[in-house]
Amino acid sequence: MAILQAFQSLIDTVQGGLILALPADGQIVSANQLAAILLATPHGDLIGQSFSHFLPNPADHELLARELRHSSMIYNRALTLQANGGRHFEVQLSLREVELDGTRLLVYSFSDRTETKVMSQLLDFERSLVERSISLMKNLREEDKPADDDKLTGVAGMHRLLSAAHAETGRARRYGGAVSGLILSLMNMPERVPELDEGSVHRHLLRLAGSLCLQSTRDSDLVAKREDDAFIILLPSTGMSGANELARRLIKALRQLTFVYQGEERTAAACVGLSALRGSESTPKPMLDRLDEALHKAREGGPNFIVKQP
């Protein structure tokens, strides 16, 4: 057909394989280059063959014809084709009957689903790798964080503080210099009474106190919290006078904080104990023990008391 020869350049621009065949016997009268490639058949050899030759299941030929009789078009039907050489591949096939220059023709268009499936599998695999990488990075970041850091306040836990205290003690013994410590306890914390309060005020005050300690200290200092909610601050290269000055600033700042508990406005308050590493001490334990003694006496003195145990 001369008109098909004229349309060949247009047919070759169609995405996917395109075949024109006679309805009576399925004889192929025209095809684009991609159809020849997908069916592994030279373009010249493809013309004249029956489309059913490329259907591995002979029943599919009659099935397609029956479906086309019941509807004007078959669209994106899953089908298996067989390339010249025996390779089977899955396609999405569309089919309709048209009239061209007075001749009735079947128009088959199809795309290889195998490549699409492979690309989809590759994308799924890539997505899985990305998700696993993100999860791994999160886990690594979590592992980098000390396990005993306090989740409520963001300050260090006691394990970290003890490790740092031993390191600072060793450095002070080797190179000289002072090391001191401060322990702070909130004095008027609301009692946790389950039937009256879930502890939200208690937690809020601890967060404020932890934030205040972090903001008031240097990068070289270390703030930690014990299970009894007391905050300990390790102060490298700092003597008792420097620790005392920090204690005064913390108490002054806490006294400016107010909170409402059961309808009553209250002012935050704390007491502080201080101590420092002595020249004869090779471990931080004696200093930490003196901090506990100083805190005990400060609690006896009441809010805003500072007790020193050099």
From TrEMBL:
PROSITE patterns: GGDEF. It comes from the Bacteria. One of its GO terms (molecular function) is diguanylate cyclase activity. It holds the Pfam family GGDEF. Gene3D superfamilies: 3.30.70.270, PAS domain. SMART domains: GGDEF, PAS. InterPro entries: Biofilm_reg_signaling (IPR052155), GGDEF_dom (IPR000160), Nucleotide_cyclase (IPR029787), PAS (IPR000014), PAS-like_dom_sf (IPR035965), PAS_fold (IPR013767), Rev_trsase/Diguanyl_cyclase (IPR043128). The keyword Phosphoprotein does not apply. Its EC number is 2.7.7.65. Keywords: Nucleotidyltransferase, Transferase. Residues 177-310 form the GGDEF domain. This is Diguanylate cyclase domain-containing protein. The lineage of its organism: Bacteria, Pseudomonadati, Pseudomonadota, Betaproteobacteria, Neisseriales.
